[in-house]
Amino acid sequence: MLFLTVVAATMALAVAQDCSSPAGTRASFGSYLQCIKEGLDADYGNYENEIREHSKKAAATCFASTIEEGNAKDRCVLAASDLSHNAWDKNGPLRECSICRTFASGAIKAIKSTPAEDQKCIRTEISKAIAREASYCLQKKIPNFAGVPEIPDLEEGSFQFKDSVISSISDHILIQSRLSFCGERKPQRAQSTRACLASPFVGYLSGHCKVLASCDAKFSGLCAQTIPATRKATCECITEARDDLKKRIGSIANVFNDLLSGGRGLAIGSANKVDICTSQIKKQMITPVNDWVSVIDSALSSCIRNKPAGQNLAMEALLNVGCRKVIADTTGAATTQLKTGFDFVNNLIDAMVQRSGRFCGGNHCLQG
């Protein structure tokens, strides 16, 4: 079925080919991304199953299932049964943070109940911000770069398979959480496990690789070299933007520590500590091209038409609640819990970027 889908996508699409100028390359790359989208849309359910099933197989291949095996193979430990529950369950990475579990579970319920049109609107707004980050980066990599074309919504078919999508995201969060835990204690093991996960077995995501290959084959002449090079640079920039955003989120814990110790000019009496705390965190989320708190709040505000009664979805409101909890807490538990929450958000971002970067391919597509 996957093969027939690829053939159908190949025959159905006429790809613009003009890589003689920056503007022409931009348009051709846009056609390339659209080719991938149509290939995925033609059989979205099977491609979604491939992501979920291959992710579990990759974990089974690259992680050790017991501590003894981990010691023998120098690999991090993750048993298959660890992926049998959701990442936001009481036994998951958020087990020490009840408020985090409440928020995460609420977010999942909101995703399930949000209409397809609203979800598409949110993805579109976030994609625009990602494109800005990528364009800013690509200007440094490609001379006379004309900008990232409109990124097609690769997740448009996901609404019908949202339970499967959520399951895949949960698995990714659990895997990344275990890698982080392992990396803090055994960095070399985490490194070798990550290397394995990048290309875990022959045939990994082979259906996706065939879609990429079919779209690659549409280009000839100058575009045959230019489009793959543009894709590679774009994917590198998306990865860099992801890593930068995760670093910014990870550093939020330092804001709380400084707040409690009186650093960064946050001494008691200087102003409202909650406002200062919220402001400092928001500053952490500003890049040269995006204010990510505003991006997310704007997307939620403009896209969700029927907002849940009595629930404020704004990021700024959540940050305000977090700051209040830290300031009111005298034990240090709130700071630790919120760090757990931000680690979870980082792993969620990682999962979402991995999904949106399906057009990137990788070394696994060169196997077999």
Question: Can you tell me about this structure?
Answer:
This is DUF19 domain-containing protein. Residues 1-16 form the signal peptide. Keywords: Signal. It comes from Caenorhabditis japonica. This protein has 368 residues and is an all-alpha fold. It is built from 15 helices and no strands. The protein has helices at 2-12, 22-41, 44-62, 67-73, 98-113, 116-141, 162-185, 187-198, 206-216, 222-250, 252-261, 273-284, 292-303, 315-328, 333-356. The relative contact order is 0.15. The model is unreliable at 1-14 (pLDDT under 50). Helix 1 (2-12) packs parallel to helix 9 (206-216), helix 3 packs antiparallel against helix 8 and helix 11 packs antiparallel against helix 12 (273-284). The chain is 67% helix and 0% strand. The chain starts with a helix and ends in a 12-residue tail after the last helix. The radius of gyration is 22 Å and the shape is globular. It has one domain (2-366).
